[in-house]
Amino acid sequence: MLNKSYIKLIERLTSAPGAPGFEEEVTKIAATYVKENGFAETRENSIRNLYLTRHGNTGKKPMLMLDAHGDEVGFMVKSIRPDGTLQVLELGGISRQKIQGSRVKVRMASGEYIPGVIASIPPHFISESANTEIVIDIGARSKEDAIQNFGV
Question: What number of other Cβ atoms are within 10 A of residue 80's Cβ?
């Protein structure tokens, strides 16, 4: 059975936001953990690959490579609509039918997060152009409200 510290680490890693191109929080958690647990060296390249080295293997023990994704499906704000909702671009492969009504966290330029929900529009109200849009509702009442009061 996994000990509680591993379970807590997995919880922290899987709860950290990591949209493609914005995986720094996941990488930071992993790097901090391995530095505190005996890895002699960590380095990161420009595309957020984290390399870990643990010295002391005399060749009598097998070497291990862990290969895992640090990113997850995410979105990038394309525009703020007049009604205060956010039109977004998808980052990663997404099934649009399955994400409607999903809760999301919107990262502001300040690094803080605000809650939102992916809008669900009944099929008979969707125009052909709207069918390709993904919209997040953060509770703003107008574009100005989204900018001034929500910090988008």
Answer: 20
